[in-house]
From TrEMBL:
GO terms for molecular function: electron transfer activity. This is Glutaredoxin. Residues 5-61 form the Glutaredoxin domain. It holds the Pfam family Glutaredoxin. CDD domains: NrdH. GO terms for biological process: cell redox homeostasis. InterPro entries: Glutaredoxin, Glutaredoxin_subgr, Grx-like_ET, Thioredoxin-like_sf.
Amino acid sequence: MSAKVIVFSTPSCIWCKKAKEYLKSINQNFTDIDVSRDIAARNDMIRKSGQEAVPQIWINNIPVVGFDLEKINRLLNLYNTKKGESNG
C-alpha cells in the first residue's frame, strides 16, 4: 500500500524545495499545497498540527514539521536513511 503524502509549502521556502526534491528522488507521489496562496489549507494545517512552520509533510495523516529525513523515512517504511539532511 502506497503512503498518502501531502506537502504544505511556500515558494520561497528552501527546506520545502529540498523535501519535495527528496520525495521525487525516491519516486514518492505527493500532493503539494502552496499555503501562501491557499489560505483555507494553511488554516487547516495550523489547526491540525498546531504549527505554522513549513514544510509540513503529512504522511498517512501524521505530520512531520520541517525536513526531518529520519522521521519521513520511518513513516514511509524506508530504512536506508541519508544522515545529516535535516532542518530540525
